Amino acid sequence: MKRLTNNLSLKLVSLMLAILLWSHVRGEVNPLETSTVEVPLHALPPRDVILLKAPNLPEKVTVVVRGPRLALRNLKGGALANPLAPTDVAPNILNGAVRASLDFSSARKGDQRLPIKAFSNAEEVEVLGTKPADIAVSLDKAQSVRFSIKPDFASPPGAGVSLKNVNIDPLSVRVFGPSNALARIKSVRASIEISGAVRGAQSLICPLAALDRDGNAVGNVRLGERTARVSFSLREVPVEKRVALSLVPTGAPEAGFAIESIQAEPARVALRGLPRDLKNFKARLEIDVSDASQTLSRRVRVPPSDGVEITPSRVRVTVKFKRTGAALDKTENALAPQTTPDDLPVRRGE
């Protein structure tokens, strides 16, 4: 005990000198400084608030901080070769060392200015403020409405294909957004692309979209589900079409005659059947004109085709003939008067 009290005054003076010397060295090597750092601005509103617009919302803001030089150096990325160097020459700030975000604690519906709140995770570093200090925004209260999902076939099946057994899972979806945007939604549709060559049952994952009455996507809304599973089946069904008959004469008319005209009544027939069967139908109708010289008029059966119903099944074909040049010359010679010896002129004196 006496050792502690011996030269007490001298010991107290030594302690005070040590504290003064430590304070002097610390002030020279690690003084308090003010610095600025740029950090990303987080602007994520609460679930019940919708950020309608923020025309001047920056990606980054400037944060003013104060602290010991070494602490600011560590905040900005550590390890400078010269510990006495200014902190402004330090690397970029470490991720998450200082954060800045819009403060939605006093948010209300409508136009307003929200303050920017910043903090540091370093114990010795103090945040003095931000530049800018607040941001102009427009807010609305978030609402939700449930809509039935309707199929939207971007490329509907072609002729001869029937769409059957359309099912959607889920049947409805909840849409979140501001009241004015929700009021513009006319329907929520699942966009479906159909391959024309595919037949039978299909099951597709289709994107969902909230559309207005003009079919345009409504912005600033969020769907509880982004996709829906749509199942359906494609089946071929009979179709009808009308085709013109191709009349093809066979054989040769009587010598000295040629075909003047050939026609069918009706000239077109109606077909009914599956598309693949209609492709196999031949509209060729052969007419035998062998040794004919007079007008032909007869009912001819249209050649049947598997799976195709033809109406009418018979048509009347009329073929007209005309004489050729050789036949006309022959006829004229046959009709001309014949010259005989009695018809020859007689010369006098003979």
Q: How would you describe what is shown here?
A:
The protein is of the alpha+beta class and 350 residues long. It contains 6 helices and 21 strands. It has helices at 2-5, 8-29, 69-75, 179-184, 275-278, 325-335, and strands at 32-42, 49-53, 60-68, 98-102, 110-120, 126-131, 134-153, 161-169, 172-178, 187-192, 200-211, 222-223, 227-236, 239-244, 246-250, 257-265, 268-273, 284-288, 296-301, 309-311, 314-323. Mean pLDDT is 80; it is low at 79-92 and 334-350.
SSE arrangement:
Layout: H1 2-5, H2 8-29, E1 32-42, E2 49-53, E3 60-68, H3 69-75, E4 98-102, E5 110-120, E6 126-131, E7 134-153, E8 161-169, E9 172-178, H4 179-184, E10 187-192, E11 200-211, E12 222-223, E13 227-236, E14 239-244, E15 246-250, E16 257-265, E17 268-273, H5 275-278, E18 284-288, E19 296-301, E20 309-311, E21 314-323, H6 325-335
Parallel strand pairs: 1-4, 7-10, 15-18
Antiparallel strand pairs: 1-3, 2-7, 3-6, 4-5, 5-7, 7-9, 8-13, 9-12, 10-11, 11-13, 14-17, 16-21, 17-20, 19-21
